[in-house]
Amino acid sequence: MNPETIICGIAAIFKFTFADYSETDGCSISARLIGGSTSIDIASSNAGGSGTAWTLTIPTTATADLTTAGSYTLLILATDGTTEVIAASVAVNLLLATATDLRSTARVTLEALEAMLEGKADKDQASISYNGRSISRLSLEDVQKAIGVQERIVKAEENKAAGIGRIQSVKLGFKNA
């Protein structure tokens, strides 16, 4: 599934299948990101194919200097060596890296709870809701319990992102020979 959102300065990968454009027939694809007051060309060197299946990578350098967030159109251009056509058009939302908080909700909540415990929570952190209550209204004991819960949730998210599965028990039995 292709991403609906591109974050400036972070590579994005799109996958397409074009029945009429096969890499084995000498076809290639490139792309153009159009929106705001600018357009960005993504060279065919950022696309690779295996038969009719194509993978397009929008490199970090292509979007790093963009200053306008919003709705963009990604045009996929296919060429057979002589003719270039629009093979696909994808609507994407572009977010600026400086205006985007990439932390998960669990991570934000954990950091707010820790700041609350240390007495350093700002107004935004103190107003975060945990189990239906503002964390500024939680007792010290409740904040400590919530931190433990959030730490486990954040650790599980990080393990999943790293491809580390849950520990599974394997039962073994030994017999005397």
What does this protein look like?
With 177 residues, the protein is an alpha+beta fold. The chain has helices at residues 60-63, 105-118, 123-126, 140-161; strands at 5-7, 12-17, 28-35, 38-42, 47-50, 53-58, 70-79, 84-95, 129-130, 133-134. It has two domains: 5-99, Immunoglobulin-like; 105-161, no CATH class. The chain is built from four helices and ten strands, in the order ββββββαββααββα. The longest helix is centred in the C-terminal third of the chain and has 22 residues, at 140-161. It is flat, with a radius of gyration of 24 Å.
> Any idea of the CATH class of the largest domain?
Mainly Beta
Q: Determine Rg (CA atoms, Å).
A: 24 Å
Number of domains: 2
Q: How do the SSEs run, as a string of H and E?
A: EEEEEEHEEHHEEH
Strand order of the largest sheet: 1-8-7-3-4
Measured as a percent range, the helix fraction is 10-25%
